[in-house]
Amino acid sequence: MPGGPNKENVPVPVPVNGTLSVVEATRRQLLGKRKRTIDTSEEGDHTDEDGHECDIDAPKKLPNQDRLVGFGRHFGRTVHPFCNLLTLITEGQSRVNELTLRGIGLEDLSPRERRDQNMFKRLINMVPNLEDRLWDQSCNPDEKKYIADMLFKGMKGARTDNTKGLKIAIVEFITPPNGVLRPPLGRSTKNGRGFFHEEVGKYLCPTDYDWTDPSIKQRLRSGQLTPTEHQWPIFLYEGLKFNRDDPWDGLLKGKLVIQGFKHVFTSPSSAEAASLVYIATLIRFSLSNSTAFTLKDPIMKNEGFFTSLLSFLENPEEEEGVNNLLNWWNDLIFPGQTSVGSGQIPQTSALAALYEARRRRRLQDVSQTGN
Fold it and tell me: Per its UniProt record, what InterPro entries does this chain match (predicted)?
Protein backbone atom coordinates (compact mmCIF):
# COMPACT_ATOMS: atom_id res chain seq x y z
CA MET A 1 0.00 0.00 0.00
CA PRO A 2 1.34 3.48 -0.83
CA GLY A 3 2.46 5.86 1.86
CA GLY A 4 5.29 8.04 3.07
CA PRO A 5 7.87 7.28 5.74
CA ASN A 6 6.51 6.65 9.24
CA LYS A 7 8.36 8.17 12.16
CA GLU A 8 7.66 5.00 14.15
CA ASN A 9 9.84 3.00 11.75
CA VAL A 10 13.37 3.41 12.99
CA PRO A 11 15.78 3.75 10.03
CA VAL A 12 18.25 0.88 9.89
CA PRO A 13 21.71 1.41 8.38
CA VAL A 14 22.36 -0.64 5.25
CA PRO A 15 24.23 -3.87 6.10
CA VAL A 16 27.88 -3.89 5.09
CA ASN A 17 29.24 -7.02 3.40
CA GLY A 18 26.03 -8.87 4.26
CA THR A 19 26.30 -8.21 8.00
CA LEU A 20 23.50 -6.79 10.12
CA SER A 21 23.70 -3.36 11.67
CA VAL A 22 23.92 -3.21 15.47
CA VAL A 23 20.39 -1.82 15.66
CA GLU A 24 18.91 -4.50 13.43
CA ALA A 25 20.85 -7.28 15.16
CA THR A 26 19.58 -6.08 18.55
CA ARG A 27 16.03 -5.88 17.26
CA ARG A 28 16.16 -9.36 15.79
CA GLN A 29 17.51 -10.72 19.06
CA LEU A 30 14.59 -9.14 20.95
CA LEU A 31 12.16 -10.65 18.46
CA GLY A 32 13.76 -14.07 18.71
CA LYS A 33 14.64 -14.09 15.00
CA ARG A 34 17.14 -16.65 13.79
CA LYS A 35 16.52 -16.73 10.06
CA ARG A 36 14.76 -14.40 7.68
CA THR A 37 12.12 -16.53 6.05
CA ILE A 38 9.53 -19.11 6.96
CA ASP A 39 9.47 -22.21 4.80
CA THR A 40 6.25 -22.68 2.88
CA SER A 41 5.04 -25.11 0.27
CA GLU A 42 2.31 -24.90 -2.31
CA GLU A 43 0.39 -27.54 -0.38
CA GLY A 44 -0.01 -25.12 2.52
CA ASP A 45 2.44 -26.71 4.97
CA HIS A 46 4.00 -23.91 6.98
CA THR A 47 6.54 -23.92 9.77
CA ASP A 48 7.55 -21.06 12.04
CA GLU A 49 11.12 -20.37 13.06
CA ASP A 50 10.96 -22.96 15.85
CA GLY A 51 9.94 -25.59 13.32
CA HIS A 52 6.33 -25.79 14.54
CA GLU A 53 3.66 -26.39 11.94
CA CYS A 54 1.24 -23.55 11.26
CA ASP A 55 -2.23 -24.97 10.71
CA ILE A 56 -3.35 -22.43 8.11
CA ASP A 57 -5.40 -22.75 4.97
CA ALA A 58 -3.66 -23.65 1.71
CA PRO A 59 -3.38 -20.89 -0.93
CA LYS A 60 -6.02 -22.51 -3.13
CA LYS A 61 -8.54 -22.10 -0.30
CA LEU A 62 -7.94 -18.34 -0.15
CA PRO A 63 -8.13 -17.27 -3.81
CA ASN A 64 -9.19 -13.69 -3.15
CA GLN A 65 -7.75 -13.08 0.30
CA ASP A 66 -4.45 -11.85 1.65
CA ARG A 67 -2.25 -14.63 3.04
CA LEU A 68 -2.33 -12.77 6.35
CA VAL A 69 -5.83 -14.16 6.89
CA GLY A 70 -4.50 -17.69 7.18
CA PHE A 71 -1.83 -16.68 9.65
CA GLY A 72 -4.45 -14.78 11.64
CA ARG A 73 -6.41 -18.02 11.97
CA HIS A 74 -3.36 -19.79 13.35
CA PHE A 75 -2.47 -16.91 15.70
CA GLY A 76 -5.97 -16.91 17.18
CA ARG A 77 -5.89 -20.66 17.83
CA THR A 78 -2.41 -20.92 19.28
CA VAL A 79 -1.51 -17.54 20.82
CA HIS A 80 -4.56 -15.39 21.70
CA PRO A 81 -8.07 -15.31 20.20
CA PHE A 82 -9.19 -12.00 21.68
CA CYS A 83 -6.34 -9.48 21.47
CA ASN A 84 -6.58 -6.16 19.64
CA LEU A 85 -4.16 -6.79 16.78
CA LEU A 86 -3.70 -3.17 15.75
CA THR A 87 -2.77 -2.24 19.31
CA LEU A 88 -0.52 -5.30 19.59
CA ILE A 89 1.35 -4.35 16.39
CA THR A 90 1.60 -0.61 17.04
CA GLU A 91 2.62 -0.87 20.69
CA GLY A 92 4.80 -3.91 20.03
CA GLN A 93 6.82 -2.11 17.37
CA SER A 94 7.21 1.01 19.51
CA ARG A 95 8.28 -1.13 22.47
CA VAL A 96 10.93 -2.93 20.42
CA ASN A 97 12.25 0.40 19.13
CA GLU A 98 12.49 1.73 22.68
CA LEU A 99 14.18 -1.42 23.95
CA THR A 100 16.62 -1.31 21.03
CA LEU A 101 17.56 2.37 21.04
CA ARG A 102 17.49 3.11 24.76
CA GLY A 103 19.01 -0.15 25.92
CA ILE A 104 16.04 -0.99 28.13
CA GLY A 105 15.87 -4.65 29.17
CA LEU A 106 12.82 -6.91 29.25
CA GLU A 107 13.16 -6.97 33.03
CA ASP A 108 12.26 -3.25 33.05
CA LEU A 109 8.84 -3.96 31.51
CA SER A 110 5.70 -4.52 33.54
CA PRO A 111 4.23 -8.07 33.63
CA ARG A 112 1.55 -7.02 31.14
CA GLU A 113 4.13 -5.44 28.82
CA ARG A 114 6.22 -8.61 28.94
CA ARG A 115 3.14 -10.68 28.08
CA ASP A 116 2.28 -8.39 25.16
CA GLN A 117 5.91 -8.38 24.04
CA ASN A 118 5.89 -12.18 23.95
CA MET A 119 2.69 -12.20 21.86
CA PHE A 120 4.17 -9.65 19.45
CA LYS A 121 7.33 -11.74 19.13
CA ARG A 122 5.21 -14.83 18.39
CA LEU A 123 3.35 -12.92 15.69
CA ILE A 124 6.55 -11.62 14.08
CA ASN A 125 8.02 -15.13 13.97
CA MET A 126 4.80 -16.65 12.67
CA VAL A 127 4.13 -14.37 9.68
CA PRO A 128 6.69 -14.42 6.85
CA ASN A 129 8.52 -11.11 6.30
CA LEU A 130 6.30 -9.23 8.77
CA GLU A 131 9.31 -7.72 10.50
CA ASP A 132 10.69 -6.32 7.24
CA ARG A 133 7.26 -5.06 6.25
CA LEU A 134 6.61 -3.21 9.51
CA TRP A 135 10.07 -1.65 9.76
CA ASP A 136 10.13 -0.53 6.14
CA GLN A 137 10.12 3.29 6.11
CA SER A 138 7.19 3.31 3.69
CA CYS A 139 4.97 1.39 6.13
CA ASN A 140 2.48 4.03 7.31
CA PRO A 141 -0.47 3.74 9.77
CA ASP A 142 -2.84 2.73 6.95
CA GLU A 143 -0.56 -0.19 6.04
CA LYS A 144 -0.42 -1.33 9.65
CA LYS A 145 -4.20 -1.13 9.92
CA TYR A 146 -4.54 -3.25 6.79
CA ILE A 147 -2.19 -5.87 8.24
CA ALA A 148 -4.11 -5.90 11.54
CA ASP A 149 -7.47 -6.08 9.74
CA MET A 150 -6.42 -9.10 7.67
CA LEU A 151 -5.01 -10.90 10.71
CA PHE A 152 -8.18 -10.11 12.67
CA LYS A 153 -10.32 -11.41 9.83
CA GLY A 154 -8.55 -14.74 10.08
CA MET A 155 -8.65 -14.80 13.87
CA LYS A 156 -12.38 -14.05 13.93
CA GLY A 157 -13.07 -16.53 11.14
CA ALA A 158 -11.30 -19.31 13.06
CA ARG A 159 -13.33 -18.54 16.19
CA THR A 160 -16.57 -18.63 14.21
CA ASP A 161 -15.73 -21.90 12.45
CA ASN A 162 -14.56 -23.57 15.64
CA THR A 163 -17.54 -22.50 17.75
CA LYS A 164 -19.96 -23.69 15.07
CA GLY A 165 -18.20 -27.01 14.72
CA LEU A 166 -17.89 -27.68 18.43
CA LYS A 167 -21.49 -26.64 19.08
CA ILE A 168 -22.48 -29.64 16.98
CA ALA A 169 -19.72 -32.03 18.06
CA ILE A 170 -20.13 -31.44 21.80
CA VAL A 171 -23.49 -33.25 21.76
CA GLU A 172 -21.75 -36.38 20.54
CA PHE A 173 -18.90 -35.90 23.02
CA ILE A 174 -21.18 -35.91 26.07
CA THR A 175 -23.59 -38.62 24.91
CA PRO A 176 -22.99 -41.77 27.02
CA PRO A 177 -21.43 -44.66 25.06
CA ASN A 178 -24.19 -46.79 23.50
CA GLY A 179 -26.70 -44.51 25.19
CA VAL A 180 -28.76 -41.38 24.64
CA LEU A 181 -29.01 -37.97 26.23
CA ARG A 182 -32.08 -37.40 28.35
CA PRO A 183 -33.58 -35.02 27.47
CA PRO A 184 -32.10 -34.97 23.94
CA LEU A 185 -30.20 -31.91 22.72
CA GLY A 186 -30.32 -30.35 19.26
CA ARG A 187 -26.97 -30.10 17.54
CA SER A 188 -27.63 -26.78 15.85
CA THR A 189 -29.24 -24.94 18.76
CA LYS A 190 -28.12 -24.00 22.27
CA ASN A 191 -31.60 -24.47 23.74
CA GLY A 192 -31.62 -26.66 26.83
CA ARG A 193 -27.89 -26.52 27.46
CA GLY A 194 -26.05 -25.13 30.45
CA PHE A 195 -27.01 -25.98 34.01
CA PHE A 196 -30.56 -26.74 32.92
CA HIS A 197 -29.45 -30.07 31.45
CA GLU A 198 -28.41 -32.80 33.87
CA GLU A 199 -25.56 -34.20 31.75
CA VAL A 200 -24.29 -30.82 30.53
CA GLY A 201 -24.37 -29.35 34.02
CA LYS A 202 -22.22 -32.21 35.28
CA TYR A 203 -19.40 -31.07 32.99
CA LEU A 204 -19.96 -27.32 33.34
CA CYS A 205 -20.20 -27.21 37.15
CA PRO A 206 -17.25 -25.34 38.75
CA THR A 207 -14.75 -27.38 40.74
CA ASP A 208 -15.74 -25.65 43.99
CA TYR A 209 -19.40 -26.74 43.75
CA ASP A 210 -20.89 -30.21 44.13
CA TRP A 211 -23.22 -30.98 41.21
CA THR A 212 -24.74 -33.89 43.14
CA ASP A 213 -26.03 -31.46 45.80
CA PRO A 214 -29.65 -30.64 44.84
CA SER A 215 -29.48 -27.19 46.46
CA ILE A 216 -26.33 -26.26 44.50
CA LYS A 217 -27.93 -27.49 41.31
CA GLN A 218 -31.08 -25.45 41.93
CA ARG A 219 -29.12 -22.28 42.76
CA LEU A 220 -27.01 -22.60 39.62
CA ARG A 221 -30.11 -23.03 37.50
CA SER A 222 -31.93 -20.13 39.10
CA GLY A 223 -28.98 -17.78 38.82
CA GLN A 224 -28.54 -17.39 42.56
CA LEU A 225 -25.08 -18.78 41.99
CA THR A 226 -23.28 -17.27 39.02
CA PRO A 227 -19.75 -18.68 38.58
CA THR A 228 -17.02 -16.14 37.87
CA GLU A 229 -14.39 -16.52 35.18
CA HIS A 230 -11.96 -17.69 37.88
CA GLN A 231 -14.15 -20.64 38.89
CA TRP A 232 -13.00 -23.24 36.40
CA PRO A 233 -15.42 -25.97 35.24
CA ILE A 234 -14.81 -29.57 36.23
CA PHE A 235 -14.56 -30.76 32.61
CA LEU A 236 -10.98 -29.42 32.61
CA TYR A 237 -10.02 -32.33 34.87
CA GLU A 238 -9.47 -35.95 33.95
CA GLY A 239 -12.37 -38.12 35.06
CA LEU A 240 -14.24 -35.01 36.29
CA LYS A 241 -12.26 -35.31 39.53
CA PHE A 242 -10.65 -32.34 41.27
CA ASN A 243 -7.97 -33.10 43.86
CA ARG A 244 -7.79 -30.09 46.15
CA ASP A 245 -4.60 -31.43 47.74
CA ASP A 246 -2.96 -31.63 44.30
CA PRO A 247 -4.86 -29.28 41.95
CA TRP A 248 -2.42 -30.01 39.09
CA ASP A 249 -3.59 -33.62 39.11
CA GLY A 250 -5.54 -34.15 35.87
CA LEU A 251 -5.73 -30.44 34.91
CA LEU A 252 -6.47 -29.96 31.19
CA LYS A 253 -6.57 -33.73 30.68
CA GLY A 254 -10.36 -34.00 30.66
CA LYS A 255 -12.08 -36.07 27.98
CA LEU A 256 -13.85 -33.08 26.43
CA VAL A 257 -10.62 -31.07 26.18
CA ILE A 258 -8.94 -33.97 24.37
CA GLN A 259 -11.85 -34.51 22.01
CA GLY A 260 -12.17 -30.78 21.34
CA PHE A 261 -8.45 -30.42 20.63
CA LYS A 262 -8.50 -33.27 18.14
CA HIS A 263 -11.64 -31.79 16.53
CA VAL A 264 -10.03 -28.37 15.93
CA PHE A 265 -6.40 -29.33 15.36
CA THR A 266 -6.50 -32.15 12.86
CA SER A 267 -2.71 -32.36 12.41
CA PRO A 268 -0.93 -30.32 15.09
CA SER A 269 2.84 -30.46 15.48
CA SER A 270 2.64 -29.99 19.23
CA ALA A 271 0.32 -28.86 21.99
CA GLU A 272 0.88 -25.45 23.56
CA ALA A 273 -0.61 -23.87 26.67
CA ALA A 274 -2.49 -21.20 24.71
CA SER A 275 -4.02 -23.73 22.30
CA LEU A 276 -5.25 -25.86 25.22
CA VAL A 277 -6.80 -22.81 26.86
CA TYR A 278 -8.41 -21.84 23.55
CA ILE A 279 -10.06 -25.27 23.30
CA ALA A 280 -11.17 -25.14 26.94
CA THR A 281 -12.79 -21.75 26.31
CA LEU A 282 -14.66 -23.07 23.26
CA ILE A 283 -15.81 -26.23 25.08
CA ARG A 284 -17.07 -24.13 27.99
CA PHE A 285 -19.06 -21.96 25.59
CA SER A 286 -20.39 -24.98 23.68
CA LEU A 287 -21.77 -26.50 26.89
CA SER A 288 -23.47 -23.24 27.88
CA ASN A 289 -26.83 -21.97 26.67
CA SER A 290 -25.32 -18.65 25.52
CA THR A 291 -26.26 -18.11 21.89
CA ALA A 292 -23.39 -15.89 20.74
CA PHE A 293 -19.67 -16.19 21.44
CA THR A 294 -18.85 -12.63 22.45
CA LEU A 295 -15.86 -11.37 24.37
CA LYS A 296 -17.84 -9.41 26.94
CA ASP A 297 -20.63 -11.92 27.60
CA PRO A 298 -21.74 -10.85 31.12
CA ILE A 299 -22.59 -14.44 32.07
CA MET A 300 -19.88 -16.57 30.44
CA LYS A 301 -17.10 -13.93 30.58
CA ASN A 302 -15.25 -15.72 27.78
CA GLU A 303 -12.27 -13.39 27.60
CA GLY A 304 -11.92 -13.33 31.38
CA PHE A 305 -11.94 -17.13 31.58
CA PHE A 306 -9.33 -17.43 28.82
CA THR A 307 -7.09 -14.85 30.52
CA SER A 308 -7.52 -16.40 33.96
CA LEU A 309 -6.46 -19.87 32.85
CA LEU A 310 -3.68 -18.74 30.50
CA SER A 311 -2.21 -16.31 33.04
CA PHE A 312 -1.90 -19.15 35.52
CA LEU A 313 -0.18 -21.43 33.01
CA GLU A 314 2.21 -18.68 31.89
CA ASN A 315 3.34 -17.92 35.44
CA PRO A 316 7.06 -18.80 35.62
CA GLU A 317 6.48 -20.49 38.98
CA GLU A 318 4.27 -23.08 37.22
CA GLU A 319 6.87 -23.94 34.58
CA GLU A 320 7.49 -27.48 35.80
CA GLY A 321 3.79 -28.32 35.94
CA VAL A 322 3.19 -26.81 32.49
CA ASN A 323 6.12 -28.71 30.96
CA ASN A 324 4.81 -31.96 32.42
CA LEU A 325 1.35 -31.18 31.06
CA LEU A 326 2.61 -30.38 27.56
CA ASN A 327 4.78 -33.50 27.53
CA TRP A 328 1.69 -35.53 28.43
CA TRP A 329 -0.26 -33.93 25.60
CA ASN A 330 2.49 -34.37 23.03
CA ASP A 331 2.89 -37.99 24.03
CA LEU A 332 -0.88 -38.35 23.52
CA ILE A 333 -0.60 -36.84 20.04
CA PHE A 334 2.68 -38.61 19.17
CA PRO A 335 2.76 -41.90 21.13
CA GLY A 336 6.26 -43.12 21.88
CA GLN A 337 7.88 -39.70 22.02
CA THR A 338 8.37 -37.20 24.81
CA SER A 339 8.62 -33.50 24.02
CA VAL A 340 11.20 -31.86 26.26
CA GLY A 341 12.46 -28.43 25.22
CA SER A 342 12.28 -27.73 21.50
CA GLY A 343 12.81 -31.30 20.17
CA GLN A 344 11.02 -34.64 20.19
CA ILE A 345 12.91 -37.13 22.41
CA PRO A 346 12.14 -40.86 22.01
CA GLN A 347 11.19 -42.46 25.32
CA THR A 348 13.70 -45.25 24.65
CA SER A 349 16.66 -42.86 24.46
CA ALA A 350 19.28 -42.28 27.15
CA LEU A 351 18.26 -38.63 27.41
CA ALA A 352 14.66 -39.56 28.16
CA ALA A 353 15.89 -42.01 30.79
CA LEU A 354 17.96 -39.26 32.40
CA TYR A 355 14.94 -36.95 32.55
CA GLU A 356 12.88 -39.74 34.07
CA ALA A 357 15.59 -40.44 36.66
CA ARG A 358 15.66 -36.78 37.59
CA ARG A 359 11.88 -36.79 37.94
CA ARG A 360 12.05 -39.79 40.29
CA ARG A 361 14.76 -38.11 42.38
CA ARG A 362 12.60 -35.03 42.79
CA LEU A 363 9.66 -37.15 43.91
CA GLN A 364 11.91 -38.96 46.39
CA ASP A 365 13.25 -35.66 47.76
CA VAL A 366 9.72 -34.35 48.20
CA SER A 367 8.62 -37.48 50.04
CA GLN A 368 11.64 -37.32 52.36
CA THR A 369 11.27 -33.63 53.21
CA GLY A 370 7.49 -33.70 53.39
CA ASN A 371 7.28 -30.51 51.26
Answer: DUF6698 (IPR046521)
